[in-house]
Specification:
36% of the residues lie in helices and 16% in strands. By secondary structure, it is α/β, with parallel strands linked by helices. A 7-stranded mixed beta sheet has the order 2-8-7-6-5-3-4, sandwiched between helices. Strands 9-10-13-12 form a 4-stranded antiparallel beta sheet. Strands 1-11 form a two-stranded parallel ribbon. The N and C termini lie far apart (55 Å).
Length: 352
């Protein structure tokens, strides 16, 4: 029996999302997944693993609502923001009829989730400054139900102009949801659009504990939106999305002490980012280090220098972004410890 004959036709054509772990590598310096470089220390306090967890853990919801400045009814928690990306499609898009729009270069899961569910996609590449091309977006809104915008954007690191986001919200009024992916917002907290929820019923915001909270392995994300959107997501989310240990640790991370620790991490990492950017800018093989409001740097190296492969072979694992950006020589470097960043600089200085 050929099992492939039973697989959905659109899934047969899919290429799985090439996550950092799926791509792999062997080495001691891992700066390819935008993780916090040092593991936090938490102890489990809940021991009732014989029972199913809460569908939406009350303490987690309440603490995140307080942290984000919204009401609990404006929050739903999921298995990372990745699940939320897909939940929105499942709740609002008819397969083979509706369309999602996104603006590359950007996070690849918008495309993968849509293709998995059989939902059509439209891409409107950003302009040369990596800002939204609003004129082209306006021309491509037919049948679009969801518009995904990542700010700070992955992999480029830039914030999307807030006036442009407001214009986009006006363009999408009464026709589509605008989803602002704020996975990296803790590194530029004053740039959040969360306060706009009061004025834009079709605004949705994605958040995560994976980056600044140093909990990528926890898989805990949040969707912030007005109640009608949250109610729709409640209809399609799994019965028990958060395991009890996940909710336990998330509750601790969102305590007053946990949030203060996160903010200290952000301060230290931003200083490390500035130092690494200065060191990279001084290297001859570097054409440009782009300004970043996240925990990584997007760097353009001389196209004839095999930077990614040379460092890969030395056990320094970065993320090649040449394909996603559409030009050779682009590499994304997550901000690691001082020792890891120094290892990158030392290896780059040896490339002639």
């Amino acid at each position: 029996m050929d099992i492939n004959q039973l697989v959905r036709k659109n899934v047969q054509k899919l290429t799985p999302y090439q996550s950092a772990r799926r791509i792999g590598g062997n080495g001691d310096v891992w700066l390819n997944a935008n993780e916090y470089p040092v593991a936090p220390n938490f102890q489990l306090t809940e021991q009732n693993l014989n029972r199913y967890p809460e569908a939406q853990p009350e303490q987690v919801i309440n603490r995140y609502a307080q942290y984000a400045g919204v009401t609990p009814e404006q929050v739903i928690v999921s298995r990372g923001a990745d699940e939320a990306i897909e939940l929105l499609m499942r709740a609002f898009c008819e397969p083979e009829t509706d369309t999602v729009l996104y603006c590359p270069p950007t996070y690849g899961m918008y495309q993968v989730s849509a293709e998995t569910l059989g939902i059509k996609t439209k891409t409107v590449p950003t302009k040369s400054n990596w800002q939204l091309d609003l004129d082209r977006i306006k021309q491509n809104l037919d049948n679009v139900k969801l518009i995904y915008v990542c700010s700070p954007n992955n992999p480029t690191g830039n914030l999307i102009d807030q006036d442009d986001i407001k214009t986009l919200l006006k363009l999408a009024e009464n026709r589509a949801l605008v989803i602002i992916d704020e996975a990296y917002i803790e590194f530029s907290p004053n740039s959040t659009v969360v306060s706009w929820l009061a004025n834009y019923p079709h605004l949705v915001i994605l958040r995560t504990l994976s980056k600044a909270f140093a909990l990528a392995g926890l898989r805990c994300g949040f969707t912030l939106a007005n109640k009608p959107v949250i109610d729709a997501l409640q209809k399609v989310i799994a019965p028990y999305p958060l395991a009890t240990p996940v909710a336990d640790i998330a509750t601790q991370a969102l305590s007053k002490d946990g949030i203060n620790t996160m903010k200290l991490h952000v301060t230290n990492l931003n200083k490390q980012k500035e130092q690494l950017a200065n060191q990279l800018s001084a290297l001859e093989i570097v054409e440009k280090v782009y300004s970043s409001e996240a925990n990584y740097l997007c760097v353009k190296f001389q196209s004839n220098k095999p930077v990614f492969s040379k460092l890969w072979n030395q056990g320094i694992i970065l993320r090649d972004q040449s394909k996603s950006i559409g030009q050779d020589g682009f590499v994304r470097i997550s901000i690691g410890t001082q020792a890891e960043c120094e290892a990158v600089i030392t290896a780059l200085k040896a490339i002639k």
